[in-house]
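Our collaborator T.R. sent over the components below with a one-line note: 'Predict the complex.' Nothing else. No constraints on interfaces, no templates requested, no preferences about which chain binds where. So this is a plain run: every listed entity goes in together, and whatever single assembly comes back becomes the starting point for the next discussion.
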Amino acid sequence: MGKLNLSTTTQNNSNLESFFQQRVDQFLKTHIKSNNIIDESIVYALEAPGKRVRPTLLYLVSDALTLELDHADAIAGALETIHTYSLVHDDLPCMDDDDLRRGQPSLHKKYNEATAVLAGDAMQSMAIEMLLDNQHFTEKQNNLLAKMLLETIGSKGMILGQALDIEYESREANESEILLMCELKTGVLIEFCFLAPLMIADASNEKWERLGKIVGISFQLIDDLLDLQETSENLGKKSQKDIIRNKKNYPISFGEKKTVELLDAYKAEANNLLQELNLDEHYLSNYIMNLFDRRI
Amino acid sequence: MGKLNLSTTTQNNSNLESFFQQRVDQFLKTHIKSNNIIDESIVYALEAPGKRVRPTLLYLVSDALTLELDHADAIAGALETIHTYSLVHDDLPCMDDDDLRRGQPSLHKKYNEATAVLAGDAMQSMAIEMLLDNQHFTEKQNNLLAKMLLETIGSKGMILGQALDIEYESREANESEILLMCELKTGVLIEFCFLAPLMIADASNEKWERLGKIVGISFQLIDDLLDLQETSENLGKKSQKDIIRNKKNYPISFGEKKTVELLDAYKAEANNLLQELNLDEHYLSNYIMNLFDRRI
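Returned assembly:
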């Protein structure tokens, strides 16, 4: 564990990110044919240029645990499909009302609101089907992975996070409430990128779990910071929207300085955990450190 | 097969419907605790008085195939949860814009639109979890059932039906297009009430499949007829809404007379199939015939 064994499939580390992006995109392309208006709109949303952070994390954690990459393809596809469905519903006028996503019109602007509701619904079904159809695992493993993902995205997970996000627009929220909201609406799906391969490899331990948890929360905190600092053009989506909507994210409520301090602490902790897990030479470490330093 | 073996659990046939309604309601009640705003809204939607047609059909088909009723509980709960999620999203202003459902305010009127989108999303996850958690079947059977249901409700099934329903508001549709839309938006989920127990009992044949198909299509045709003929008060939801929205359902496009003729033909065919399947003494036959004669 901990040694990069991807050198046979890629020329060097700097190509790894685009390698993983292309890998999950290829999986999605072969799985979703555009036969009708709903599938066409799903392809539109999935083909928009995203960073594919969740698939990349999943592949890297899988590799670090010496799992085969092709065993992870269906999980990567499911994760990106779930993430995209959550964005499509989140962008609806009755939710965050965003017209721009991944540098192009949101699905409800390109098509219409009804199509966006339905396409998101169908993407959720599609993602779980991908997991259950994975031929590389046993029925029991597929069953467990699907249940884990459904719990992650359900009414006690991601959906609750999005509901709290909306609820806090109209009331005050304290620090622990805001951190919980961050973890639920964004963190838990990123945590799943760690927990899924850990379950398959039967390698779960507190260090790995903690790593997944802080990477997940930090991802949202960085998003919130960038939303305050960047222009829409650089982000590929509307910036400063949280202030406009009276949202209660961490930097808005407690200031940029305190957010940066919290992120620095999480980054140092993640770095320690990666060393303790003997992953300092694995590209997962670079990738996670780069996530902490990202500007987009 | 074909003999009613429910006599030990119910006093007489006239109590059967409320017996099944209570049975699935009890299952849902023990499975969904109202711990947060999303779960609370889900309980609100699920506790509204519905006819529980899908669970009842599922239980009756299961019984006709001599399956145990408690093995069907999780499937019944999943079916009612999926059906309710589809109603919650369908009632949204950007879809059919209905303020009234099952005699009470629609979820987005009782709460708000964002909560309705999120609650529907979470109900889909919850329903599939119910299937995957069913302790009465093997993991392979649970996975097969979940995949069957996901395909049924996905972008080539129920969701496509709802997309076509919206699409036809702004263009003409011919008879076969309208019948396909009926089958997809409503029929396939009712068909699943037949196909799921058939799969578990390994008893699938063309007669059973045809029965499920025509009961499913007919259910939508009867809904469309009632929508034209009844008042909102009797229906528990807005009536004549299809004409108002320029929808292209069968009676609107081809007249009430032709719809009644088609339904009479389907009813006669269903009756023949039930006899050929030796089900004329099973309560499933009464129930299906009553569905054809329903006025609400």
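Summary for T.R.: Chain B has one domain: 15-293.
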